[in-house]
Amino acid sequence: MNSFYPNQGVIKKVKFETTNTNTYTLAYSDQKLQKDFSPAPGQFIMLSIFGVGESAISLSEICKNGSIITTIRDVGSVTNSIISLKEGDYIGIRGPYGNGWPLDKIKGKDILIVSGGMGIAPLRGVINYIKNNRKEFGYLEILYGARTPDDMIFTYEFDKWRKIRKTRLELTVDSMPVKSQFECQLGLVTSCFPRMKSKPRNSVALLCGPEIMIRYAAKCLETIGFKDNQIYLSLERRMKCGIGKCGHCQVGLKFVCKDGPIFSYRDIKPFIHPL
Amino acid sequence: MNAYVIDKGSLNVLLDRFLNEYKVYGPTKPGMDSTFDEIHFIKDLHLDYISTILPPKKFFHPPKETLFSFEIKNRKFSSNEIIKDDKILLFGIHPCDVHAILKLDKFFSGDFKDLYYQNRRKNSIIIALNCIEPCENSFCTSTKTGPFLKDGYDLLLTDIGTKYLLEIGTKTGRFLIERLNLKKANKVDINEKNKRLKLMEKKFKKFLNISLLPRIARENTDHKVWIDLAERGGVAGSFPCLSCGSCTFVCPTCYCYDVYDTMDISLKSGTRNRELDSCQLLEYAAVALDGNFRRDRKDRIRHWMMCKFGAAAGGESSSCVGCGRCIRVCPSKIDITEVAKVIRGG
Q1: Which of A22-26, A212-216, B177-181 is least confident?
Q2: How many CA atoms lie within 13 A of A146 on its CB side?
Q3: CATH assignment of A7-97?
């Protein structure tokens, strides 16, 4: 089996999120591949547009029937051409790759989710997993920051998340233009920390977002009293292969694609802070 | 005893045997420096060489290759894998380069296999040649990758005066020389080899102390030497790094590559290719929205040095083999052994 060879997939559904972000439901053209596709929350796939290139995209929802759900924002050449695709168009898929969130290790604990911008996408699978297995987890707190309310994705999920038992959702934005679709707190996602209900004892923090947000959020959580092995974070790099051979995603002693993208803050701390 | 001897004058017997079945590549000297090129006749071969500019990595992990071609019809696509099955024989590779190939073998296997690399490796035969003169910049005694080879070869040649000592490493190697009626080596020949090894080891001028080096490198990520290398120069007479990437392209253990598509003018077919990439180039760690994780030259040169000291994600598989090519090609006269000395505090 050639690891570089993408399999043909088809776009089943396109869901509008924001002006430059869509959620896609994909399926392999090959029934067997579709059946065998069983990813874990936090893993990613490589999407190919032939003639443009390949890009690593995280899975934003985990489906039992093997559907592949990803949320894509138009930021580069590959994502730009994906955004212009319609239902029924074909796309190259390979994966899933990476390790996924450590769901076994975090069972029985209070969960704090800190996410920024598109960072909520790989965490949505975890939130929905907790929702479906509510008894196995403690208190759930979701902090989500974005640039403006209009840049927030999965807004249709917010009410559902608020209704999960023992759950708190807090939203912040950097700025609030007039005529925004809804109102929320101003400030960076770290500004929610003084108000949060999660206590360091018996909790686990899951972080995903722009790397600058991850660095500061992790540092802030450490000062509050979280230990570095209670913090997990999801990193992102521009990957060329997704299988730990091309070298582009190296962070210190780790490949983000093969050893990550989810790391314990204890393992990755020496490498992500600029020196 | 698995050793034979062959007179220098009758080396063509050996070469003709190989030329019958394989494409043979070996060291040639088209100009001032030597290079690995296809050998057709014994006169092309230039075994008395100091390391080539490009390492034999180019045969297994070529500077540029096509992974597969694709066609787009009715918005659907189909692709054809391009895997070649040429059998090649590399004649006269030095021990440091053989060690580098063994490291790449390890790197390109594992959970995800690189079929292209492994296929080429499977279809190759290595006839190594022990060094009897050190290269000007090499330090293979320090990295334990030379000057004499212990494993990783099919056949191994050692110059012992008027003859070559020929040792067999694998079944393939034995098969290759089976019907050549070579003379068995005697004790004197073996002793001569060992004597030359001892003599050779004394001739090295450069050294790199590798004990605990990955750990020492990791603990010195904020050492002043990185700024010196990148901006100020002056590490044992070096100039500031130019980020030209020469060191990465001549390094036999640098594996990084870039993947990109090319399209036919009809926009109906194209190829996906890969090309060697260099961590010294600004675009290497660039991400969308103008982000870059190694924008500073300091970060890039540090990353490469760390990688060669075995303190990057490639670990042991991308660490230095002591061939000295990077020292030879660096336009700023940066010397990896001197950098190692500085971070060791000496």
Answers
A1: B177-181
A2: 23
A3: 2.40.30.10
Residues 20-79 of B with CB under 8 A from A: 67-68, 70, 72, 75-77, 79
Predicted structure pTM score: 0.92
Comparing A13 with B78, which gets the higher pLDDT? A13
* Mean pLDDT within B140-167: 91
Residues B270, A236: C-beta atoms closer than 8 Å: no
What's the gap between Cα B147 and its chain centre?
Answer: 15
**Which residues are CB-contacts of B336 (< 8 A; sequence separation ≥ 6)?**
B208, B305, B308, B320, B326, B327
Domain A103-272 has CATH 3.40.50.80: yes
The encoded tokens of residue B143 equal 């990295």
Chain A residues close to B221, C-beta within 8 Å: 270, 275
Nearest to B253 by CA among B98, B134, B135: B98
A21-37 tens-digit pLDDT: 999 999 999 888 888 88
User: Chain A contacts of B313, Cβ < 8 Å?
Assistant: 244, 247, 250-255, 259
B113 in contact with chain A, both atoms CB, cutoff 8 A: yes
d(CA B294, CA B306): 14
pLDDT of residue A275: 41
For chain B, give the mean pLDDT.
91
CB spacing of A275 vs B222 below 8 angstroms: yes
Q: Do B114 and A270 touch (CB under 8 A)?
A: no
Q: Give the ipTM of the model, two decimals please.
A: 0.89
Percent of chain A with pLDDT over 70: 99
CB contact (8 A) between residue A5 and residue B81: yes
Domain ranges of chain B: 3-201, 213-343
